[in-house]
């Protein structure tokens, strides 16, 4: 029942407007300064609950699969919020699930007797939550991306002022969610290779920084080069080469699951291996990748068999630093390409010195040729 049935006085209207404007400015400042979505929604709930004693506030997100996930509910019991995580929306899915499904407000004045709560009332009633009013948060494309809800510890519906508060709060939630989604999409693009859809070099470097270097032999790095990308590009064109990269990326990633695969260069892929079974036999792990690649592929109407060479290195007591392990994997790859493409070489102590001497000799010879200090026949 609405308690604000009479025409509000001008003073009351001005006071309400001032309160809502203050709430709006507080949350918009958080959004503008880049505060993350969850603390922003949490602050919104706290401000609203201060403004409306007796109301318990909740914000849920709705993912692409139509599942609910708590964003904020600082006054809700944690066990209750956890029980909501992953629930599907639908026509009889409580107040929030129904509001998200129908795209309209749903006010349930008695959770115990309302059919829409039949499957969920056992979650709410033990905590004294007797009524719930939920509003969908709908984006510019018409998709429901969340819900904003009031829980009551008495059997009633929203007041007129509460409706004004919710109207403002829903808009603020939408602004915060839109900004969050833009940030997430920007980060996704920044860390995703556009051609293959795999994580890119930036993601690879970030993943390496997160590795624990205190447990030797707990992870390894593979670096893989496609051996025939240039030939495919030169023979069939870059469209076929792009197709080869996509197919190779898919096959490498599938062979590495649940490990991680990255495209870190033109024809170069990186892998982080931390599964104990894969670490126990790195040769077999590399062989499984090469076997997956070795099947013929249709690249723009041309039959191509992807060929690759792999170098690998394991975190060890001798090299307990990420950068050294990465460098060792590169040395192993260079050695594999020098001694016979199409296989796998695991780094061993001394290989780095050998490769360093070899690369140094190449640089010296190149410099001598440029300076005409060598007469070649």
SSE inventory with pairings:
Layout: H1 10-32, H2 37-51, E1 55-62, E2 68-72, H3 78-84, H4 94-102, E3 106-108, H5 121-124, E4 131-138, E5 144-152, H6 160-190, H7 201-209, E6 220-226, H8 229-236, H9 238-256, E7 260-263, E8 268-273, H10 276-280, H11 282-293, E9 297-299, E10 302-304, E11 308-314, H12 322-339, E12 344-346, H13 351-370
Please give a handful of descriptors for the protein shown.
12 strands; 5-stranded mixed sheet; alpha+beta; 13 helices; disordered N terminus
Report on the structure:
By secondary structure, this protein is an alpha+beta fold. The chain has helices at 10-32, 37-51, 78-84, 94-102, 121-124, 160-190, 201-209, 229-236, 238-256, 276-280, 282-293, 322-339, 351-370; strands at residues 55-62, 68-72, 106-108, 131-138, 144-152, 220-226, 260-263, 268-273, 297-299, 302-304, 308-314, 344-346. The radius of gyration is 30 Å and the shape is elongated.
In short:
Helix content is 48%, strand content 18%. It is of the alpha+beta class and 377 residues long. The N and C termini lie far apart (101 Å).
The string of secondary-structure elements, in order, is HHEEHHEHEEHHEHHEEHHEEEHEH
Q: Which strand order do you get reading across the main beta sheet?
A: 2-1-5-4-3
- For the secondary structure, the number of strands is 12
Overall form: elongated
Distance between the termini: 101 Å
């Amino acid at each position: 029942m609405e308690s604000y049935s009479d025409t509000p006085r001008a003073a009351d209207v001005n006071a309400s407007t001032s309160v809502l404007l203050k709430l709006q400015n507080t949350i918009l400042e958080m959004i503008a300064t880049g505060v993350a979505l969850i603390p922003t929604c949490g602050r919104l709930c706290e401000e609203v609950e201060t403004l409306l004693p007796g109301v318990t506030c909740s914000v849920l997100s709705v993912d692409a699969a139509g599942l609910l996930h708590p964003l904020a509910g600082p006054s809700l019991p944690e066990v209750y919020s956890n029980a909501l995580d992953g629930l599907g929306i639908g026509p009889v899915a409580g107040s929030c699930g129904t509001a998200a499904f129908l795209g309209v407000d749903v006010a349930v004045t008695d959770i115990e007797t309302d059919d829409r709560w039949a499957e969920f009332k056992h979650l709410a009633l033990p905590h004294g939550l007797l009524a719930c009013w939920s509003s969908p948060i709908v984006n510019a494309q018409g998709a429901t991306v969340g819900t904003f809800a009031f829980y009551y510890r008495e059997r009633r519906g929203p007041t007129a002022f509460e409706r004004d508060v919710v109207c403002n709060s829903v808009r603020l939630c939408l602004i915060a969610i839109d900004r969050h989604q833009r940030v997430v999409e920007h980060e996704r693009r920044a860390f995703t290779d556009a051609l293959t859809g795999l994580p890119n070099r930036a993601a690879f470097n970030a993943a390496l920084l997160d590795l624990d270097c205190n447990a030797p032999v707990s992870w390894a790095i593979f670096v893989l080069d496609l051996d025939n990308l240039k030939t495919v590009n030169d023979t069939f064109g870059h469209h076929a080469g792009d197709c080869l990269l996509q197919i190779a990326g898919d096959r490498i990633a599938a062979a590495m699951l649940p490990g991680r695969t990255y495209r870190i260069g033109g024809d170069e892929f990186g892998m982080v291996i931390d599964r104990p079974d894969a670490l126990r036999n790195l040769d077999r792990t590399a062989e499984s990748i090469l076997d997956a690649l070795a099947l013929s592929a249709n690249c723009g109407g041309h039959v191509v068999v992807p060929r690759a060479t792999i170098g690998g290195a394991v975190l060890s007591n001798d090299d307990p630093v990420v950068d050294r392990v990465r460098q060792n994997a590169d040395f192993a790859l260079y050695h594999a390409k020098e001694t016979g493409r199409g296989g796998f070489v695991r780094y061993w102590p001394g290989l780095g010195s050998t490769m360093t001497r070899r690369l140094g000799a190449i640089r010296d010879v190149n410099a001598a040729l440029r300076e005409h200090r060598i007469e070649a026949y």
